[in-house]
User: Which sequence fits this backbone?
């Protein structure tokens, strides 16, 4: 495993701090993303049920990775903010570990040692950033675990967090209904950062718009003018527009 120190990264850090608005992504992890995309893909196996013979034992369907594909990325450790750069990585939600592919070997770093990491994803036009959720608490003061994905950075950051839920097998032999397999599901929630806490974004549109104070009406109009196909798209529009309004 290669740990990289770079004077140029430090310089970029200082420039970013002096020229940008408040951010939650560490500038040195942002500055390290001059890396290539990765396109490896490993599919999921599927099975079929044959009638007239005993049913096979149930399986566990799904995986615990945020994304099974390897993506070239950068990792910043808590230890002296060391950077590990330009390695294919992927994140295991269940174990809270980041896998690193080093040549023919795969090594693992525990999530509690990682301050933040980022990777290049072909679905996004910019690098995707993740920050350790243990650095934040919820409204009740309980510490989070795992990682937040930073969807919108700035004065009111928008974050998402994906957790694992297991749906147990519910197959009924007599009725021949249900599933004989346990299924791993991934549930996503959205949060915003305020006063050092990660608070869940309200589900109702009016309560969500109230987060933006005097800019609420302007942002509501902006959302109407730019139709969104999903809740995440709507939140991205709202929080990004708020970032632009505050910055201006």
Assistant:
């Amino acid at each position: 495993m290669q740990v990289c120190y770079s004077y140029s990264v430090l310089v970029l850090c200082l420039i970013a701090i002096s020229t940008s608005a408040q951010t939650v992504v560490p500038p040195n992890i942002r500055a390290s993303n001059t890396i290539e995309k990765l396109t490896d893909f490993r599919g999921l196996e599927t099975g079929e049920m044959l009638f007239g013979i005993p049913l096979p034992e149930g399986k566990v369907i799904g995986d615990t990775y945020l994304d099974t594909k390897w993506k070239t990325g950068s990792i910043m450790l808590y230890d002296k903010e060391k950077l590990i750069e330009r390695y294919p990585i992927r994140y295991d939600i269940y174990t809270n570990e980041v896998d690193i592919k080093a040549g023919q070997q795969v090594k693992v770093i525990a999530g509690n040692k990682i301050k933040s990491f980022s990777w290049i994803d072909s679905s996004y036009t910019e690098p995707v950033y993740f920050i350790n959720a243990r650095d934040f608490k919820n409204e009740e003061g309980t510490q989070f675990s795992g990682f937040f994905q930073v969807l919108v950075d700035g004065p009111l950051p928008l974050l998402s967090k994906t957790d694992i839920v297991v749906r147990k097998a519910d197959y009924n032999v007599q009725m021949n209904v249900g599933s004989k397999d346990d299924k791993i599901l991934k549930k996503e929630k959205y949060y915003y950062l305020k006063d050092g806490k990660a608070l869940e974004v309200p589900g109702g549109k009016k309560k969500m718009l109230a987060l933006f104070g005097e800019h609420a009406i302007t942002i509501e109009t902006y959302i109407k003018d730019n139709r969104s196909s999903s809740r995440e798209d709507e939140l991205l529009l709202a929080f990004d527009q708020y970032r632009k309004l505050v910055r201006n």
